[in-house]
Amino acid sequence: DGGITQSPKYLFRKEGQNVTLSCEQNLNHDAMYWYRQDPGQGLRLIYYSQIVNDFQKGDIAEGYSVSREKKESFPLTVTSAQKNPTAFYLCASSVLGRVHTGELFFGEGSRLTVL
Amino acid sequence: GESVGLHLPTLSVQEGDNSIINCAYSNSASDYFIWYKQESGKGPQFIIDIRSNMDKRQGQRVTVLLNKTVKHLSLQIAATQPGDSAVYFCAGNAGGTSYGKLTFGQGTILTVHP
To answer: How far apart are CA A99 and CA A4, in angstroms?
Structure first.
């Protein structure tokens, strides 16, 4: 079945460590996104990419990095520079022709806890 | 700045009732508004969108209303079912050439009682 796979589902990290969250999609979507969700809040955009080897910062990119070497993959690295990394991270994708409508397909999320 | 917010954080209804979830927005440049449903521990699921030049759009059991005069949109769910229990988010796109950038509201928790 087509979809978006995020891994790991749960991740624990010590302060000062970098961690990489995986996001893979087999929907043949061009655009991919990373959002962060904190308890009781809406989603906030970290990074997005509309084409391979190109990506743009979202509203809260500080302390995060991404790469888009393949159409199917858009990994997110949470670096030690991110001051408050404990959150629920959501990856999404969209058909390029529907990007303007805001119709995104989301993965199941990765919950990161910093100990 | 751009923001999308909600009037109420929680809504409780009885099974079979109609539900109305409200949302206010501030960015007049948004040309699409979208509703998402998020079940506990899962990613959001697209429900319906509405273009800014429309004032109403209907889907299966859902209707979205857009009032640009007061910058307000609402999601109406007909004959609400226990499976509709979830957090509902409204979102607006950034408009212009910033395709794909969405601003989400805080969410409304809908609880449906059997």
So the answer is: 16
> How far is the alpha carbon of A87 from chain B, nearest alpha carbon, in Å?
12
- The pLDDT profile of chain A, 115 residues, written as one tens digit per residue, is 679 999 999 999 998 899 999 999 999 999 999 999 998 778 999 999 999 999 999 999 999 999 999 999 999 999 998 989 999 999 999 987 777 778 899 999 999 999 8
User: Is B104 touching A (CB cutoff 8 A)?
Assistant: yes
Q: How far apart are CA A52 and CA A74, in angstroms?
A: 9
pLDDT grade for B102, boundaries at 50, 70 and 90: confident
Q: Is the pLDDT of residue B57 over 70?
A: yes
Of B42, B49, B107, the CB nearest to A102: B49
DSSP reduced 3-state for B41:
coil
Amino acid found at B3: S
Residue A101 has its nearest CB partner, among B32, B104, B105, at B32
Asked if the Cβ–Cβ distance from A101 to B92 is below 8 Å, we say: no
* Number of alpha carbons in the 13 Å side-chain half-sphere of residue A107: 31
| pLDDT confidence tier of residue B89, bands split at 50, 70 and 90 | very high
Q: Tokens representing A4? A: 């978006």
Distance CA B106, CA A93 (A): 21
What one-character-per-residue DSSP string does A32-97 give? EEEEEE-TTS-EEEEEEEEETTEEEE-TT-TTEEE--SBTTB--EEE-TT-S---EEEEEEEE-GG
